[in-house]
Amino acid sequence: MPVTTKPSDGKLSFIKVTRAIIYLVYFFAVTAIVFLVIGFFLLLFGANTDSAFVRFVYNIAVEFLQPFRGIFPPKQITETSYFSASALFAIIMYSFFAAALHGLISYITLKQANHENELIQAQQEHDRLTK
């Protein structure tokens, strides 16, 4: 009984590498959304900045917020709580970006599956002709 191996060629390798890179960028976008959402609510509810967790979240979220800083000024709600429209806008923008990447991942996965099927069919045809 012949051993079946997964087909491979340059195009398939390129598709796999491209898909892996897009997954990394997708992971970045989802991570940004998570930290921005947590930071948004911590700021909204006036979380204690003496807490190590709050400082950690703020330090990470501020990096993801950097491109959107200054678009909207934060609005003070109480002495310690603020509404950050910039953070909310950043969450929305990263979400759109993540949704687009998700669609791209689905498209590339479909392309990969189709190309693998083409390679399998070509190998089967080659095997049939050589017998």
Brief characterization of the structure:
Helices cover 73% and strands 3% of the residues.
The dominant shape is rod-shaped
Mean pLDDT: 91
Helix content: over 70%
Q: Provide the gyration radius in Å.
A: 23 Å
* Major sheet description: 2 strands, antiparallel
Q: Please tally the β strands and state the result.
A: 2
Which structural class is indicated by helix and strand composition? mainly alpha
**How many domains would you count in the coordinates?**
1
CA-CA gap between termini: 14 Å
> What fraction of the residues are assigned to beta strands by DSSP?
under 5%
Total helices: the number is: 3
Unreliable residue stretches: none
Q: How are the strands of the largest sheet arranged?
A: 1-2
Sequence of secondary-structure elements: HHEEH
Description:
The chain is mainly alpha-helical. The chain has one domain. The protein contains three helices and two strands, in the order ααββα. Strands 1-2 form a two-stranded antiparallel ribbon. Strand 1 and strand 2 form a beta hairpin. The longest helix is centred in the last third of the chain and has 46 residues. The protein is rod-shaped, with a radius of gyration of 23 Å. The mean pLDDT is 91.
